[in-house]
Amino acid sequence: MKKNFKTIILSATVAAMALVSSCTKTCDPGYEGSDCKTAMNTKFSGTYAVKDTASSADTTLYFNYSMTVSSPSSEPAKVNISNFGGFGSGTTISGTVDGTSLKLDNTTLAGVQISNATGTISGSKLAFTYTSNDGTAFTSHAVGTK
Fold first, then answer.
1. Percentage of residues of the chain with pLDDT beyond 70
2. CA angle at 74 for the pair 48 and 35, rounded to the nearest 5°
3. Do residues 17 and 9 make contact, with C-beta atoms less than 8 angstroms apart?
4. pLDDT, tens only, 79-94
5. Which segments of 15-77 are extended strands (E)?
6. Which of 37, 65, 77, 143 has the fewest CB neighbours in a 10 Å radius?
């Protein structure tokens, strides 16, 4: 009887430890970190020197420009980017971040339709792709460095 009791106690202890160790902290939307107090958008904020390659069916264009990513403090998963695509400092595109991923809203900047804009950040580099269309569709691949 003692042997069975020890086996039951041991099994219950192992099961309890497995349950406790499988628990993870879930942060509120837009926040991350061990304390869940770091807004996801903060790692994207800054000014980037961008090298952009835009390709259409018969043309490849190269652009260098500076763009600025700002993070609204009231919206931890949102970003605003000025001079995206080099379309001018008065132009802004907004988007949503999730971890290291970025998805920008479809919009029109300086008469050019911007769509399918996505990106990822790794350290000080923000890599992104997007489609621009001003009558000719271009697919752009760009990398910005803070």
1. 84
2. 85
3. no
4. 999 999 999 988 999 9
5. 31-32, 38-39, 46-55, 60-70
6. 37
